[in-house]
């Protein structure tokens, strides 16, 4: 069992009283998701992680909280603010990154793709069921040889009369083996032979679509990531997402997911800090608690400072997003910084637990392992560094 304590109303790491900058609606969102995590995730996550189980039974509860497609307006979605969505992701990831990832893949990727780029008919068909948790979606962009550079994707969609025929492979696709619909990005080849990246809605029951979970994993064990094979998958002409052809289509969805990570990573860091603080106050060595030693206090202070700075950054980015002023490079600032500091906080917290810290009785090492994936997906540290380098210098160093 995970023995990390439930988080009090005001986090110990809130050294600057940021809570006072949150609206009543934002605090209500925080408290509702935090209660769900304390009640449903904390008591069970060690077992789910150890057994590599994604708990599908909690999906209806997530839907009832309005977490699926939380930031989308209409179609049964909650239509909450960017800051409310970020707060929810932070609280979920305090439980586990893999369970936050479910909400991200479902809402920020699959549902956002349909909401941003789909036809009204496509939105009506898919979004209400996805918001209710009755339909699970996935987002197929990454390929075995096309990760950080999706422009090199090899998956193709060729027009054949009134149909599209998809062939190719995708890798590291969250939820694919339990999904009902997949948003697949492919180079669509028209009659003239011209190719351009387009999105397609693929019911996973379509012949030629196969999803295979990637196992075993050392990270994100309470989540599902898959290989997808597309072999002569035939779709009707209206399966294509009609809006925003080109890579800007999937990139706009990735930015939604990256935004959630800016907040989510801090949840893992905060939970690890709380576990280390509680342990250090209870563990007696040389006749006094670990928390009474100067080196222990230095570690706690450094961790709390980094979490607080990351929180300031997340809140600033959220406010900019709600104001319609968020630029792409700003998301890279948040994703790069907060993933970087979160994994270091989790590792440092583990050191305060000594040998006990390598067991699933405590959360920091589980969080650190999960963050190896979070730090990698939706843009590696290196990619976000180059995005910011280009913004600062005006020179692209990607090639």
Automatic annotation (TrEMBL):
User: Does the UniProt entry include the keyword Cell membrane?
Assistant: no
Q: What is the lineage of its organism?
A: Bacteria, Bacillati, Actinomycetota, Actinomycetes, Micrococcales
Q: Which cofactor does it need?
A: FAD
The cross-references to InterPro entries, in alphabetical order and at most eight, read: Acyl-CoA_Oxase/DH_mid-dom, Acyl-CoA_Oxase/DH_mid-dom_sf, AcylCo_DH-like_C, AcylCo_DH/oxidase_C, AcylCoA_DH/ox_N, AcylCoA_DH/ox_N_sf, AcylCoA_DH/oxidase_NM_dom_sf, Glutaryl-CoA_DH_mitochondrial
- Annotated Acyl-CoA dehydrogenase/oxidase N-terminal domain residues: 23-134
Molecular functions (GO terms): fatty-acyl-CoA binding; flavin adenine dinucleotide binding; glutaryl-CoA dehydrogenase activity
Regions annotated as coiled coil: none
UniProt record, GO biological process: fatty acid beta-oxidation using acyl-CoA dehydrogenase; fatty-acyl-CoA biosynthetic process
Q: Using the record's annotation, list all stretches that form the Acyl-CoA dehydrogenase/oxidase C-terminal domain.
A: 246-392
Which UniProt keyword terms apply here? FAD, Flavoprotein, Oxidoreductase, Transit peptide
Q: Name one Pfam family in it.
A: Acyl-CoA_dh_M
Q: Which residues form the Acyl-CoA oxidase/dehydrogenase middle domain?
A: 138-233
**What's the name of the protein?**
Glutaryl-CoA dehydrogenase
- Family listed: Belongs to the acyl-CoA dehydrogenase family.
Which PANTHER family is this protein grouped with?
A: GLUTARYL-COA DEHYDROGENASE, MITOCHONDRIAL
Q: Could you say which residues form the signal peptide?
A: none
């Amino acid at each position: 069992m995970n023995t990390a304590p439930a988080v009090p109303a005001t986090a110990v790491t809130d050294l600057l009283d940021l809570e006072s900058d949150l609206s009543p609606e934002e605090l209500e969102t925080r408290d509702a998701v935090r209660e769900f995590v304390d009640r449903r995730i904390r008591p069970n996550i060690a077992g789910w992680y150890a057994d590599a189980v994604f708990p599908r039974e909690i999906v209806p509860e997530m839907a009832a909280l309005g977490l699926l497609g939380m930031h989308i307006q209409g179609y049964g979605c909650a239509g909450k603010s960017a800051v409310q969505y970020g707060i929810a992701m932070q609280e979920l990831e305090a439980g586990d990154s893999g369970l936050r990832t479910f909400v991200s893949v479902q809402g920020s990727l699959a549902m956002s793709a349909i909401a941003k780029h789909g036809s009204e008919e496509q939105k009506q068909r898919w979004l209400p069921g996805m918001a209710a948790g009755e339909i699970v979606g996935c987002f197929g962009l990454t390929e075995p040889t096309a990760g950080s550079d999706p422009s090199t994707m090899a998956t193709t969609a060729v027009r054949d009369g009134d149909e599209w025929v998809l062939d190719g492979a995708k890798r590291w696709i969250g939820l694919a083996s339990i999904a009902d619909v997949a948003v697949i990005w492919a180079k669509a080849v028209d009659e003239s032979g011209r190719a351009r990246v387009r999105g397609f809605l693929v019911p996973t029951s379509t012949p030629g679509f196969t999803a295979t979970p990637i196992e075993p994993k050392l990270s994100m064990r309470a989540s599902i990531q898959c290989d997808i094979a597309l072999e002569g998958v035939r779709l009707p002409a209206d399966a294509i997402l009609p809006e925003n052809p080109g890579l800007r289509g999937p990139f706009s969805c990735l930015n939604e997911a990256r935004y959630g990570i800016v907040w989510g990573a801090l949840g893992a860091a905060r939970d690890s800090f709380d576990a280390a603080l509680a342990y250090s106050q209870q563990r007696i060595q040389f006749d006094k608690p670990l928390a009474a030693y100067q080196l222990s206090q230095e570690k706690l202070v450094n961790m709390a400072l980094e979490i607080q700075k990351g929180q300031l950054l997340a809140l600033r980015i959220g406010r900019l997003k709600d104001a319609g002023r968020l630029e792409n490079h700003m998301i890279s600032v948040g994703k790069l910084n907060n993933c970087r500091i979160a994994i270091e906080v989790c590792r440092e917290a583990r050191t305060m637990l000594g040998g006990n810290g390598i067991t699933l009785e405590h959360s920091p090492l589980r969080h650190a392992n999960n963050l190896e994936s979070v730090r990698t997906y939706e843009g590696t540290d290196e990619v976000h560094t180059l995005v910011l380098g280009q913004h600062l210098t005006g020179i692209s160093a990607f090639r």
